[in-house]
Amino acid sequence: MSLLEMSGITKHFPGVLALDNAHLSVEAGECHALVGENGAGKSTLMKILSGAYRADAGLIKLDGETKHIDSPIAARRLGITMIHQELNLLPELTVAENIFLGHEVVRGPLGWLDKRAMEKRSQELLESLGQKLSGRALIKKISLAQQQMVEIAKALSVKSKIIIMDEPSSILTDRELHELFDLISRLKQQNVAIIYISHRLEEIFKICERVTVMRDGRTIQTEGTGKLNQDQIIRLMVGREIEQFSPSQHSHPGEEILRLEAIEKAGKLHNIHLGLRKGEIVGLTGLVGAGRTELARVIFGADQPDSGRILLEGKPVSLRSPRQAIDLGIGLLTEDRKTQGLILNMMLRENTTLARLSRLVKRGFINVSAERSVTKKFIRDLLIKTPSTEQKVRNLSGGTQQKVVLAKWLFTESKILIFDEPTRGIDVGAKAEIYQLMWKLVSQGIAILMISSELPEILKMCERILVMHDGEITGELKREEADQEKIMALAMGLNHLARTS
Ligand SMILES: Nc1ncnc2c1ncn2[C@@H]1O[C@H](COP(=O)(O)OP(=O)(O)OP(=O)(O)O)[C@@H](O)[C@H]1O
Ligand SMILES: [Mg+2]
């Protein structure tokens, strides 16, 4: 008898059959991977298990007994906890308040909140995850990766039999990932079952015993991870062959379009010099916290440097706001789509054209039918999974939302595009499409600055790679001379190693 048995699970949303007779069986003490393309139904199936959604049909059994899970509280009582793909923390509250939300520690006959105890316990939980973070820190002040660790600590603060992790790794750095994997092994030893959703297939071979593949709301197959290789899993996921994209040709960069000179920003950026030419993709990498995102924000006018110059096509500009940057032809795809990229309550069509609505306005009116047809084109090009152009972005799957951010910036027809982690949370099939598309953009003369922590992706896409450490650019490598070791050495500030090796 399995710990968990889900069978015949079906779920409709307006215009979408999200789950079609799906099933899943999980044993105690195993890490069970759940994989599938964007929109395959993974999060929906897990939201049903964790009580966030009700299934239209189907059965859930725990230790052989049928259970009705009709709320997150009911799920928690049964020992089921979910770490959500879209972080669910309250930005205005502290780390400790978030961790203990809904099960606060109280003391005394009047039930005073025991703040000190909660802060202490929070810090201990985070320390066990290798995080030095005060329980009193405000969520809005900490990094995305740290927020993810807080989500995980929150799941650990209650005793669980099943912990669902919906793409926990997509915003973690290597070090945090390591801590997460250690934690998963410890949980397995305590006989906890982990359901692990990830688009990074190499991860699941490291930590999962079995994998279930979903496609179009259906369960395709469950298999031991030792019995399948990565290509076989991909084939099951997409149901077709996908071309592995490799840029065979070299790009032909034109004249310089963007130049940064001696940019300084106290505590964040130091002595940044950078040149970007038309028709090239330059990679920008480094550990989280190295200043990559800060640098992107300066180029996008979201932050102003203390000193230094920015030149566009040879002319000095002062970028005081993103609006100004957009008007000058600079676009930034942010890593945090929830707060900066999209308006979740608006339609797909409206989000697509948001950053450059002026392209569609004639005599004061928005040309809605033109808007619809450009959106349809992006739906085709980027394989956006949606019932129509009118769907609210909130209702799209996590990875699909990321594709909408991309569509939005492509629509602006910017001359310079900064991509901050563009393929995070994107499935294998669509990744290849996005690489292809970026390559097409540079062949049209657009300049791309690509920020990514995934070194294989940087090495594949960029002919020039800049590495940052502690607010400085510590090195520049050509693709021919670059490898993961050299990049890591520069990223850790060990410049001499990169040079001599
Ligand atoms: N609340 C909702 N309202 C309408 N449609 C929804 C809702 N939630 C999910 N869907 C749709 O159900 C389908 C499955 O989505 P789900 O989020 O489960 O995908 P996923 O496998 O988690 O994908 P990803 O890898 O992108 O996170 C998608 O077509 C999605 O648009
Ligand atoms: Mg999902």
Describe what you observe in this structure.
The structure is a single chain. With 501 residues, the chain is α/β, with parallel strands linked by helices. The protein has 2 domains: 4-238, Rossmann fold, CATH 3.40.50.300; 256-329 and 414-500, Rossmann fold. Helices cover 34% and strands 26% of the residues. The chain is built from 18 helices and 24 strands. It has a 6-stranded mixed sheet, with helices on both faces. It has a 6-stranded mixed sheet with strand order 18-21-22-15-23-24, with helices on both faces. The protein is globular and about 70 Å long.
What's the gist of this structure?
With 501 residues, the chain is an alpha/beta fold. The protein contains 18 helices and 24 strands.
What is the CATH topology of the largest domain?
Rossmann fold
Question: Which structural class should the secondary elements be placed in?
Answer: alpha/beta
Counted up, domains total: 2
Task: Give the end-to-end Cα distance, rounded to a whole number of Å.
Answer: 55 Å
Highlighted features:
501 residues; binds magnesium ion; Rossmann fold; binds adenosine-5'-triphosphate; globular; 6-stranded mixed β-sheet
List the helices and strands and how they pair.
Elements: E1 4-13, E2 16-26, E3 31-35, H1 42-49, E4 57-62, E5 65-66, H2 72-77, E6 80-83, H3 95-99, E7 106-107, E8 112-113, H4 115-128, H5 144-156, E9 162-166, H6 174-189, E10 193-197, H7 201-207, E11 210-215, E12 218-224, H8 230-238, E13 256-265, E14 269-277, E15 281-286, H9 292-299, E16 307-312, E17 315-317, H10 322-327, E18 330-333, H11 337-341, H12 348-353, E19 361-362, E20 365-366, H13 368-381, H14 398-411, E21 416-420, H15 428-443, E22 447-451, H16 455-461, E23 464-469, E24 472-478, H17 484-491, H18 495-500
This protein binds adenosine-5'-triphosphate and magnesium ion.
